[in-house]
Amino acid sequence: MLLAVVGVLAASQIIDARVGIEVTTNGASVEMEYLVSAPGNGLTFDAIKWPGQTISLEGSVATTARDLGGLLRIEPVETGPETFRLAYTVTGNPERVPLFVPKLATIPGTTTITISVSGVVAGASLADAFPRFNRQRDGTLLGQPANMPGFVLLPIEGVNRARLADSLVLVMLFAASVFWVVWRVRSAT
What is the dihedral of CA 128, 165, 150, 59, to 10 degrees? Predict the structure, then answer.
């Protein structure tokens, strides 16, 4: 048991992750910084590709960027330094902002993750946001999740399309259930 714990502690892991998101009219600008213990070769970052969005990497942050269907995978230019910086823009629907997540462990209690979002409408409700955010005095949203999320669901003013889609699925399931019960009752008589 002790040997397994030592093996986990010796392996590469994320020590600190900082994400800054600036919401714009047609998307978002994202800056990410990871502090990694014992980085090594083969470190990759994956981001979810949402329909209707385009991810544009800024600068020469990757040796390869591969489209894997629903994921975009990149590999950093250098694998030597402990700090990795990544900047990119997301155009299209700004409701869900994909984050590049490294294939490394985040261990709650030893990893600090901070996500800040600026440019969100002041009247937007935080009830639908993911991860959970707190509004700061300057209007910036600050979140500190235990694990690195693959995306940020931004609070928007007006109708939240993600919540609307979820509600529509529940209504369709309810309607299908009612239809099935009526059909069974009619066919039994």
Answer: -100
The contacts of residue 38 (CB under 8 Å, 6+ apart) are: 10, 11, 12
Place of tokens 């009219």: 25
The DSSP string of 123-181 is T--GGG-BS--EE-TTS-EEE--SS--SEEE---SS--HHHHHHHHHHHHHHHHHHHHH
What pLDDT digit, counting tens, does each position of 21-64 carry? Answer: 998 888 888 998 888 776 555 677 888 888 888 888 876 555 66
pTM: 0.70
Q: Which helix (H) or strand (E) holds 55?
A: strand 53-57
Helix (H, G, I), strand (E, B) or coil at 187: helix
